[in-house]
Amino acid sequence: MSEFHLTWRKYGIRDNPYFNAPLTIEGENIPISSFIGRKKESEELKRVIEMGSDIRFMIIGEAGIGKTSLVNFVRNEASKNEFFTPIREIELNKVMETNELIILTLSVIYDEVKRTKKQLLNEDTISKLEALYELTKYGELSHDLANITQLNRQRLIDLFKEVVKQIVHPIYKGVIIHFDNLDNIEDTEGLIDMLSEIRDFLLTKNVVFIFVGDQFLPAIVNSKPRLSQIFLTPALEVTSFSYDDIKNILKERINKLRINESIPIIIPHTEDALRILFELHDGNIREILNSLMSCVLSLQPYNLPIQIAEDNLRDILFQKVNEMFMKKLTDIERDILLTILENKHITPTQLSELTKKRLTNISSKYIPKLIKISAVRFKYAEGRNRFYEVTPEIKWWKLKREENEKIKTKINQKDKINEIIQKGLKEFI
Ligand SMILES: Nc1ncnc2c1ncn2[C@@H]1O[C@H](COP(=O)(O)OP(=O)(O)OP(=O)(O)O)[C@@H](O)[C@H]1O
Ligand SMILES: [Mg+2]
């Protein structure tokens, strides 16, 4: 095996510019100041935070569209203006017991208190928090643990209120708590119950609670008046970026990751490639980043920095989807998958009408198989209708090039190589 080289060095950058993790206050990948666009949304969230108290607010939008980064960016700005907010968002991606959730929130707050190195809490409160903190020390807090402790919920809520009071007075304007990833909770009923049960905890003064989820979160909250009453409406919806925003996000990342001024940068993708992916993924940034990353992984390991351009983008991604999915399907399964691809969201009944296959087979045989191989996923339910969509990789099928197009580029490439050789020869002679 030959030596290992870091791929990105060839391009004059020190790390992967296509990372798909959110921007964080800690700035693990790149500083949070690299945040681009979203002026209107950030202003709206800022105004909500400025209310300082009695706020329960939802940020909603499709997966991978930029919700977490938006909240982290605005929280970071707020933290520079005397708002107290834990550096890390709190993952709320499964149904938890009320006690468990409060303990988790308290431990995240306590971590932040320690990080600030300020004396925000009195001795008595610190010792209570230390005791709770012990419970979370060994990783995830289990349901059992929360129950075994048999803590009285009201006492936990009182402790939370006391902690907030001591933090806020006299230094801070308020506390911001960011619960993330609620869309990962599939158990809708469980989520409704959990939110209803923590209602008293959510009524704490001087706290702004932010809940991040998908477009269906407001409906969940609205299903119980007791719950909907305490949420600020409407939710803030995060939509896809414009092409220019995405271009600028990548430009900013590449500049931030530049090795040094003396080494020139070669952007690993062309504008054409980016525009094709932008159209294909309807501006969903996470899907675009993942596609670019997949392409780089498949580029031939030359020492020269090869750019992802229209032709190799189409060839690589089409070949991938073909190998990973299409080749493993029967003609009927493929026909069904392509019909789902053509229709953004589709129900089994619509699919049965379009493909002329029996509904029972669609529901109990074909869709489960496509879900099993991760070619299709459940999108949402409306009444009794269940809608399905393809997973992002399946969209690569649309990048297929016509054979004559391929021949044309091959000839063009040959011409280009000839041209370079001729030019080189001339210079040499
Ligand atoms: N305004 C922005 N400026 C720069 N990069 C951004 C911005 N918004 C999002 N990104 C980048 O886009 C990607 C997706 O963003 P993010 O993780 O925030 O989306 P999300 O909606 O929270 O996703 P999920 O639904 O999976 O939680 C990340 O790599 C993130 O760094
Ligand atoms: Mg997120």
List keywords for this structure.
Arc Repressor Mutant, subunit A, globular, Rossmann fold, 50% helix, six-stranded parallel sheet, binds magnesium ion, 429 residues, two-stranded antiparallel ribbon, binds adenosine-5'-triphosphate
Q: Count of DSSP E strands?
A: 8
CATH architecture of the largest domain: 3-Layer(aba) Sandwich
Largest sheet: 6 strands, parallel
Query: What is the CATH C level class of the largest domain, in words?
Result: Alpha Beta
| CA-atom Rg in angstroms | 26 Å
- The secondary-structure class comes to alpha/beta
SS strand fraction:
5-15%
The stretches of 5 or more residues where confidence is low (pLDDT under 50) are none
Number of structural units classed as domains: 2
Helix content: 40-55%
Total helices: the number is 18
Label the overall shape.
Answer: globular
Give average pLDDT, whole number.
90
The CATH superfamily of the largest domain turns out to be P-loop containing nucleotide triphosphate hydrolases
Distance between the termini: 39 Å
In short:
By secondary structure, the chain is an alpha/beta fold.
Task: Write structural notes for this entry.
The chain contains 18 helices and eight strands. The strands form two sheets. Strands 1, 2, 3, 4, 5 and 6 form a six-stranded parallel β-sheet that branches. It has helices at residues 39-49, 67-79, 98-116, 123-136, 143-148, 153-168, 188-197, 199-202, 217-222, 225-228, 243-256, 271-280, 285-298, 310-324, 331-342, 348-355, 359-372, 403-428; strands at 55-60, 83-84, 90-91, 174-180, 207-213, 232-237, 376-382, 385-390. The protein has 429 residues and is α/β, with parallel strands linked by helices. It is 50% helix and 10% strand. The model has no long low-confidence stretch (mean pLDDT 90). The protein is globular, with a radius of gyration of 26 Å. The protein folds into two domains: 38-237, Rossmann fold; 324-429, Arc Repressor Mutant, subunit A (Orthogonal Bundle), CATH 1.10.10. Bound molecules: adenosine-5'-triphosphate (ATP) and magnesium ion. Residues 22, 67-68, 180-181 line the site of magnesium ion.
